[in-house]
Automatic annotation (TrEMBL):
Any one GO MF annotation of this record: hydrolase activity
InterPro entries hit by this protein: AB_hydrolase_fold (IPR029058), Esterase-like (IPR000801), Mycobacterial_A85_antigen (IPR050583)
Keyword Manganese: no
Keyword Isomerase: no
Secretion signal, residue range per the UniProt entry: 1-27
One Pfam family from the record: Esterase
Organism of derivation: Nocardia pseudobrasiliensis
Protein name according to UniProt: S-formylglutathione hydrolase FrmB
Keywords: Hydrolase, Signal
Amino acid sequence: MSSKQWTVLTRLSILAVLVSVVFGATAAVAGAGPERARVVDAVRVDERNIRYRVYSPAMDRVIGIDVLRPVDASTPRPTLYLLNGGGGGEDDATWRKQTDVLDFLATREINVVQPVGGRSSYYTDWRATDPALGVNKWRTFLTVELPPVMDAALRTDGRKAISGMSMSATSVLQLAIAAPGLFGSVAAYSGCARISDETGMRMVRTVVKVGGGNTDNMYGPPGDPMWIANDPYVNADRLRGTNLYLSTGSGVPGPHDVADSPFLMTPGSEGLANQVIVGGAIEVATDQCTRAMRERLDELGIAATYDFLDGTHSWGYFRDSFLRSWPVLARGLGLTG
């Protein structure tokens, strides 16, 4: 299945869910085994970009890691973990291929780390091996195994931030909650933090199903305590002290919802119709989710920066939100801008 087909299928599946709902460890220690997470090899793509392959004991496999180095790597620099969406960075629906965000980051003195993998996984630790998606222990990998490996390989200054869109917008909040203090800043674009209520649970199940997986292997059946244990809305108090940015579109067409937009996954009228109709419906849901999370954080007295804008669930808005979030991310990285 092509990335465009995957994107369309994901949007249509989530739209069907929305309609049905509305209307009816020590950081350096690796996993459970005696082996440690380690760099298997590294290939320099060009002067600034390196493809690392890192072994994960928790998943017993090698994960690709795309790294953008700072202009001046002679001094220790902070690191931004930049997560892709439901395709896990293995398709064309990536920050690099659909936006100019990496060009923007190339002007900053930071390391940018992008894991390649995790399709439909929500970058979390699954309770069981899935027949389609295999072993998923992404939370362990991204909070325990990978950071010390990257810190050593890149000679970083130890400061970290993380951001994600769509599926991974949920994930970055979960990861920050699982490892308080690991990430100085978290930015989540067009995601749904509340996963243990009916709407959130169905959305998660739909994204996982698009990848061929079964959420019974993830958090168990509906009502299992693992859903609440992994719900950022329920566990939002653990975000205290983190620089937070949350954004969403309203679902109402905005400036990027035009036929000649460079951000259309499928050019022309067909792609625009899909973006406006299906992407609009998805963004209506993420708008509700984000507003609920704002109320929750306000109740807890936790400050955050929010952007509620017009627009659909699509790359032009993810790109805009990233740029708007940069001052928040920069604070967690110890940068002034």
